[in-house]
Description:
alpha/beta
Amino acid sequence: MRGELERVVLGSTTAWTTPVGFGGASLGNLYRETTDAEAAGAVSAAWEGGIRSFDTAPHYGLGLSERRIGEALACYPREEFQLSTKVGRLLVPNPTPRGRDEGFAVPDTLTREWDFSLDGIRRSLEGSLERLGVDRVDTVFVHDPDAAYPGAAREGLEALSVLKAEGLVAAVGVGTNQSAGLAALLGDGLIDVVMLAGRYTLLEQGALDDVLEPASAAGASVIAVAVYNSGLLAAPRPPADATYDYLPAPAELLGRANLLADVCERHGVSLPEAALAFPLLHRAVAGVALGMRSAEQVRANLSRFAADIPGALWSDLVEHGLVDPRTVGLA
């Protein structure tokens, strides 16, 4: 058992994260079943490896992820870990069940209903607390507001600001895989932390100017997720059938990933090791959260996190035009 990883404060709040956090989507049976034993083993391995930040959402398996994470963490002192969940999708009875949920291998007896109102967010958080078996969570994210309707992000954040003022949560933010519009919300002081999926990675840095730099200027934090771009950067050499955003990777991106792998190999670093280390180089990034469904995956990711990455790798990637020099402190 290794010691607890470093604690990194989120923005100007009392909430914090560890540089590597546990993402709970797979514990909701994302795409395929994860057994109860695998789920419990993954959380246990994360704790043994020093991870103290755990993220989940009602969306993940229609509450299954929240229940599993709550059960697995129940044996640990509450003050020693950070817990985050999300709001915006209320779980309600499904009037037309077909047997299985779309995206998660769970029965579809419930369905999701968009609601970013103050009342809806209160109800969502109450349901999450009940499933998690805790009396509080530390951080709450407005979940995928870009997929709901225009203005959902602002509506949800303004509602969360009320809960924060009441002392019900320590930090609030947005969890999304789209960067558009976040700069304005950061500038207005509505966001403590952005959980950004797939848009700031070794493969693509498009969110540098519209999320990371505005977050830094606003004193907010970023947690990078999907740092392997849903599979494309998850192996030392990307396979021909690698996925990107959960779909077959386009040839252009597959070629770029192979160029990244070429440079990494010259420096004795694996592509996944570099992909995990890269986001943490930016001053706005407090941590990465990794989706892990087994103890084996947890240990593999912690081994990647511990890898020694030579500074010359980042210089070489800049020289080849594969990363923006500002992302690695070379501009």
